[in-house]
Each structure stands twice: as C-alpha cells, then as structure tokens.
C-alpha cells in the first residue's frame, strides 16, 4: 500500500456511537472507502436508517454501559461479518456542570460510557485484532478522546477526566498491543458540532450559554472532519501507527 492510498477494501470495522456525530460520519466514510461496517449504538432506528443509506453496513443496537448487551452485539457482528480488524470507539456523552452540584448521576453516566464502555468494547474485540495482526494483516484500534483531556474548561472537570483516562488508556494499550502489531490511535478533537452539546440540562452551559458562545467565537469542526482523519489514520501502511492525533478548529488555542 502506498502512503497516499485510502482504500479500505477487505477491512471489517466496528464503529460505536454510530447513531450520530463523529461515529456516524466515520462509519459512512469507512464504508465509502470499501470497508464492511457494523454500526453500534443505542438508537436502533437511526442505525437502520444509516445502514440503508450506506447499503453495506449492519446495524447492531447496543448499550456500551451493559456488559451483556456488548457481548450480544459482538456475537452478532461476528455472525454477520466475521472477524473484526478495525474498531473505532466513538460513543461518548458530555454533561457539564460544576462539581459543587454533586451530580452523581451525570458522573456515573459519563464514566460508564466514556471509560468503562470503551473498555467493554475493547474486551469484546481485542482477540479479533490480535488474531488479524498475527496473520500479517492490518489491525486498528481507534479511541476518540477529546482535547478536553489536556485543556481545562470550567464546569467540564468530570468529562475532561474521563477523556484524560481514554488518552492514557490508549497510550498504555500501545505498549500491550504494539508489540503484537496491533495499531492503537488516540484521536483528540477540539470543538466539534455534534449532539454532545445538546445533552446538558444546564441552560447557562449549553448551546444557549457558554458552549454556544464558544461556537460563535471559535467556530467548530464538522464530524466529517474528524472522520476524514480517522480514515486517513487507518489507511496508512501496516508498519505506520499514528499514535496521537489532535485536530482543532483553526481558531481554537
């Protein structure tokens, strides 16, 4: 494969968070580049709509916070598509609030989705990746973290902590999987126009408040911008691993 090739024909991908945003855009682009794609998310109606649009994708409803749900999804993916060689962890939730508010419900949801959910998916498909690499083929694990893993934003402390955990986890996994020829990539987008900004129940911090002001002042990436970066990363020659990739709107410091 040349360094300019972006063909993913013959690859079998799993993309979590595929019902919207970065996950949906990534699934759409991987399929356009030739990969067979399993679409994983909670909202089955959206997955079915996206699968119909793509034509070669398999919609699989899953809750990454539930181990039995992840196990069942992995079994279905293998039954319909066979062994997986590309995993993109794009599922996530962002619920900003001051720590003083003590929103244990939000903390638990973010940790279960953004950290433990990522681990559950890795556990479900890591054997596939290792076996693929052992046979001399390309195997990729891509974790979508956030620039919030490094930059401090007031009221986003717990969200940022979950993404810092993903960034550290990705680095640690390279030490475990890299020697077995499985590539691990951590992608950290900056301000991106996705549904995450609509999840908050705090009007002062949402799109009508702090977050909206950031979009107005900085602008944002589109989910397709991040998807393009993921597709580029996983289409490099097998011996090339883009370990850490940060992508920001030009005006974001």
Write up this protein.
It is a single chain. The protein has 253 residues and is of the alpha/beta class. The chain is 44% helix and 14% strand. The protein contains 7 helices and 7 strands. It has helices spanning 21-32, 44-54, 67-81, 104-134, 157-177, 210-218, 223-234; strands spanning 12-16, 36-41, 57-61, 86-89, 140-144, 183-189, 244-247. A 7-stranded parallel beta sheet has the order 3-2-1-4-5-6-7, with helices on both faces. Strand 4 (86-89), helix 4 (104-134) and strand 5 form a beta-alpha-beta unit. The mean pLDDT is 93.
Sum this structure up briefly.
This protein has 253 residues and is an alpha/beta fold. Strands 3-2-1-4-5-6-7 form a 7-stranded parallel β-sheet, sandwiched between helices. The chain has helices at 21-32, 44-54, 67-81, 104-134, 157-177, 210-218, 223-234; strands at residues 12-16, 36-41, 57-61, 86-89, 140-144, 183-189, 244-247.
């Amino acid at each position: 494969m040349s360094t300019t090739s972006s063909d993913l024909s013959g690859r079998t991908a799993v993309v979590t968070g595929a019902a919207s945003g970065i996950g949906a855009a990534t699934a759409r682009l991987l399929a356009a580049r030739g990969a067979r794609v399993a679409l994983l998310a909670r909202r089955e109606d959206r997955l079915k709509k996206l699968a119909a649009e793509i034509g070669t994708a398999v919609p699989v409803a899953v809750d990454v916070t539930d181990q039995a749900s992840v196990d069942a999804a992995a079994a279905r993916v293998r039954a319909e598509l066979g062994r997986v060689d590309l995993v993109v962890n794009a599922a996530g939730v962002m619920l900003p609030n001051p720590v003083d508010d003590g929103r244990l419900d939000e903390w638990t949801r973010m940790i279960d989705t953004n950290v433990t959910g990522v681990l559950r998916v890795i556990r479900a498909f890591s054997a596939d990746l290792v076996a693929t690499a052992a046979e001399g083929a390309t195997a990729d694990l891509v974790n979508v973290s956030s620039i919030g893993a490094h930059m401090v934003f007031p009221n986003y402390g717990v969200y940022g902590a979950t993404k810092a955990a993903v960034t550290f986890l990705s680095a640690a996994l390279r030490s475990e999987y890299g020697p077995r020829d499985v590539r691990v990539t951590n992608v950290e987008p900056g301000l991106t126009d996705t549904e995450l900004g609509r999840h908050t129940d705090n009007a002062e911090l949402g799109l009508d408040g702090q977050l909206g002001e950031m979009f107005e002042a900085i602008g944002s990436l589109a989910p397709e911008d991040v998807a393009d970066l993921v597709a580029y990363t996983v289409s490099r020659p097998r011996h090339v691993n883009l370990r850490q990739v940060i992508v920001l709107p030009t005006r974001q410091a």
